Amino acid sequence: MDYWEPELETLPRDTLERFQARRLGQTVERALNSPWYGEAYARQGITPDDIRSVDDLRTLPFTTKDDLRAHFPYGLLCLPLRETVRLHSSSGTTGTPTVIFHNRHDLASWANLVARSMFAAGVRDTDVFQNICGYGLFTGGLGFQYGAERLGALTIPAGSGNSRRQIKLMRDYGTTVIHTIPSYLVRLRAVFDELGLDPRRDTRLRLLLIGAEPHTEATRRRVQDMFGVKAYNSYGLSEMNGPGVAFECEAQSGLHLWEDAFIPEIVDPETLGPVGPGEFGELVLTTLDREAMPIIRYRTRDLTRFIPGPCPCGRTHRRIDRIAGRSDDMFIVKGVNVFPMQIEAVLMRIPEVGHDYLIVLDRVHGLDTLVVRVEMHPESFTGDFAALEELRDRITREIRDEILVTPKVELVEPGALPKPEGKAVRVRDRRNETGAEANVTPGE
Ligand code: AMP
Ligand code: ZN
Description:
Blueprint: H1 6-9, H2 13-31, H3 35-43, H4 65-70, E1 86-90, E2 98-102, H5 104-120, E3 128-131, H6 139-151, E4 154-156, H7 163-173, E5 177-180, H8 182-194, H9 199-202, E6 207-211, H10 217-227, E7 230-237, E8 242-248, E9 255-257, E10 262-267, E11 281-287, E12 298-304, E13 306-307, E14 319-320, E15 325-326, E16 331-333, E17 336-338, H11 340-348, E18 353-364, E19 367-376, H12 385-403, E20 408-412, E21 427-429
Parallel strand pairs: 3-4, 3-5, 5-6, 6-7, 18-21, 19-20
Antiparallel strand pairs: 1-2, 7-8, 8-9, 9-14, 10-11, 11-12, 12-15, 13-14, 16-17, 18-19
Helix pairs in contact: 5-6, 7-8, 8-10, 11-12
The structure holds adenosine monophosphate and zinc ion.
Residues 249, 251, 256, 311, 313, 315 line the site of zinc ion (ZN).
């Protein structure tokens, strides 16, 4: 088995934990230089001497997105501005953005984590890597760019959009690896079809790296079938650099979370106490190798679990399960809690269903309504009304069995649903506002 950093990636657990404890102490010491942590920790009498082991982390308070927003822009910065060299920011559609600052060390450490991640998924310096991602404040562009360069792959900074051009680039330069969001790959495949091309025959593609938005295992399998290659899951968030936090290795059985750079915890989102072994909860992350802006016990809102047991690849860094949703994605309809991924899981295992859907919540005469608009698969989109009706009933039944609420299912033709430029929008909640969208995680 090949590793990017053999020693670090296979550290025995006790050595890894000692390493983490040391870095955690340094992190707390650095954080005290920021106005916000400095004041908050002083108020609570927290000093670096309190941190002797990884377990001591639990005595420290959480950091939330609201904290970052409330102290925007410089409240968590630990270094003078002249020592910082880049910022990335994640701007919601409303409200104050969050911003993360990096110094040179932070950028080098991040690039190395992305290189390590890509290597674990099987990317090598002989690959031609096309990064189909916004190159701006969004971290997927520059994050993968520098990571792939660090790895030594020939990197095409393709940016997002313009599918015909993407396909031309792939064919001109013999792209072997693509990174993008899964919802875009579906669109890209449709453009291959329009051009009478088949990526399995007409490109040199051998790997896909997909991430930045929630998707189910069934969606992954569909994407793999469309392109005839394996797709590896990439997880990250701008508050923790961006990509390179957790990544699937070639075993494709969970995402190794790089524990020399982050301490992961999984907590019950209500009680904030730890969940039992292998149970789902909210992922909380602490940076261990960031100098300009360390963040301690950040509540990601992403729901996952630790996968118990060792990975066949031999890496000792624990694996998290694919993100099941975000605690703030959950919507309540007719009193029932529902995650969009539950609906996606049902839809994507039905072959007649296409690759896109939209959940629309509304209130009619004071009652919640749940409409699921489902794009049909092009091959199933025929004029056979009886078959369509039968399919609609089947989807309705299967969703009801999963979420215990009966949806109104509307079948629409392939390509009929709106396609945002960035991350997919799965839910439109019209109950309280005039057409505003919930669940918008911005990217580019
Ligand atoms: P941003 O900071 O704008 O890059 O958004 C980060 C968020 O995107 C994370 O907190 C997750 O909710 C989501 N995300 C990123 N990668 C994945 C992934 N592989 N699977 C599911 N959700 C993801
Ligand atoms: Zn592994």
